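Batch job 17 of 40 flagged for manual review because the log was empty.
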Amino acid sequence: VQLQASGGGLVQAGGSLRLSCAASVHTFSRYIMGWFRQAPGKEREFAASISWAGITTAYADSVKGRFTISRDNAKNTVYLQMNSLKPEDTAVYYCAARETATGDYDFWGQGTLVTVSS
């Protein structure tokens, strides 16, 4: 599985961005997809995840109500819509995939940088 994240950039506080992650895999719907982020000098942290068919989602408290994860299995793509961005959202955002309901993510994308200016 190869994952390619895109859509990062520079945005002012209060603005929006949509990240995309395209997967090179035959059966994308077999994978739970997640978004993680790593801010400068900090450890990588979970941001959001979405189940195989997109029915179940989960969010970190820090992004709940502002970020929305979605997927299009026909396009092998998962999205992260980020609204009301804050400077503390500045980070490299990574998409990840796993086949099992629980456990570690097995596949990771290369990351896309999001910078939120105050």
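Reviewer: the log was empty due to a logging misconfiguration, but the result itself is present. Residues 72 and 92 are 23 Å apart (CA to CA). Unflagging and moving on to job 18.
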